[in-house]
Amino acid sequence: MLSWNCCGMGSPTTVRRLREIQSNISPDILFLIETKNPDLAVEKSLEWMLYPSHFLVSPHSPGGGGLALYWKNDVDITILSPCQNFIDTQIKQDGSFVDIRSFMAQCDLFDLRHSGNFLSWRGKRHDHLVHCRLDIAMANGAWSEVYPHSHSEYLRFEGSDHRPLLTILDLTKKQKKGIFRYDRRLKENEEVTSLIKEAWEFDKEESVEGKLTRCRREIIAWTRIKHQNSQKLIEENRQKLEEAMVSQDPDPTLISTINHNLLLAYKSEEDFWKQRSRLLWLSLGDRNSGYFHAITRGRAAINKFSVIEDNDGIPQFEEEDMLKVITKYFDNLFLSQETGNFSLVQEALKPCISTETNTKLTLVPTEKEIKIACFSIHADKAPGPDGFSASFFQSNWNTIGPLVISEPAKNGGLQTYSSMHSLLQDHC
What's one GO MF term for it (predicted)? Predict the structure, then answer.
């Protein structure tokens, strides 16, 4: 049932709002207050709503009053005593929820506390758009004792005619702290570029590793201050668009600007998840954010251990115990052991690289070779242990490149090549 003080049926805005309500909600019962028009005028203004039954109370004066009650055939309404101020009715409705309520009573089930718009499904019935609550999270008494603070949340419509229903079990559970990953969206941010340059040049005597640590710390601090979160930007622009669209004095230029900003926020979100998904063959601009997100979540699920067996076949569930099992396995795997076949292996090996070729391979790489090697790595490849990907080095090469090249050269020879090779492997 929808009740609304319409403040006059003669206003085009009132009729337009009713059309919107009918299209989005299609209430079974519609009650209007302050129609301010004769009965014939009200009937003519609302005949397009196609309600089969209605009851009207004429306004008490040309400038005020008037009631209108409309209802559908599947609602049984009896008018008891109308007057200028109210319409007293008796409403009968079939008990279509008897079975589910009996089931809930027998199983000691009740609705969890919920937030958000609980009209979780939208669809068409004949020519009408219907919103109803089809999705419900329920629990019993035993559940509420274990999870006393659990509740559910109805999320927004997107990708389905059902709202996702999120059930949160433990409000006190802390979210696991994420590890640092350089966000390649920052490569085009002039403020971040300047911040990296300042951090890199802060201490001339600092090593490359120390400078990278300083850059990482500054980027994290900047991100927290600026709240560079594309989801937050999307939500803010959605809210601005909603306010602009429902404004009584809409500004087309403002609406166009907000839509443009929202599009940029979606593009930024897609860019971020494309990087996280490690898929390189899908192009940006195809609205694949959901797919990239699913790939990332799926990879995280695959990479997560829930149980592991040790050498004795005993399952280990705790993270610390699983870490010990893995460490012990690889310690034993790479442990050098004496064998009697060393001479046999030596006899089987034949040199495939000439002395001349070996000399070339062990030469100290030139500045050009190092830069080519770094820029040949795809910007979306997985980052090194410090969280910096090739995108970081490529976009800030003018600042960081000279020291990245010169620092290993202090040792010279083969050690220089090994150090640079390791650096490129770790970061590029």
Answer: catalytic activity
Cα(5)–Cα(14) distance, integer angstroms: 10
Closest Cα to residue 377, out of 397, 400, 393, 401?
A: 393
Is residue 116 within 8 A of residue 153, CB to CB? The reply is yes
Angle between helices 230-245 and 252-277 (to 10 degrees): 160
Cα 204 from Cα 197, distance rounded (Å): 12
Please state, in angstroms and rounded to a whole number, the distance separating the CA atoms of residues 54 and 68.
Answer: 7
Cβ atoms of residues 78 and 90 within 8 Å: yes
Each residue's pLDDT tens digit, 180-207: 888 777 887 888 899 999 999 998 888 8
Tokens of 31: 């009650």
Angle (nearest 5°) at CA 373 between 372 and 375: 65
For residues 140 and 63, what is the distance between their CA atoms, to the nearest angstrom? Answer: 55
Helix/strand/coil for 295: helix
Task: Report how far residue 55's alpha carbon sits from residue 201's, in angstroms, rounded to the nearest whole number.
Answer: 80
As a whole number, mean pLDDT of residues 149-166 equals 80
Angle at 202 between CA 200 and CA 207, to 5 degrees: 60
- Beta strand 76-82 with 315-316 is unpaired
Q: Which two tokens stand for residue 254?
A: 């403002």
Specify the residue for token string 């390791």: 422
Instruction: Specify the length of the chain in residues.
Output: 428
Q: Are 270 and 292 in contact (CB under 8 A)?
A: yes
Tell me the pLDDT tens digit for each residue of 87-115: 999 987 675 566 777 788 888 888 888 88
- Domains, in order of start, for the chain: 2-92 (3.60.10.10), 98-168 (no CATH), 184-296 (no CATH), 305-350 (no CATH)
Using an 8 Å Cβ cutoff, are 418 and 398 in contact? no
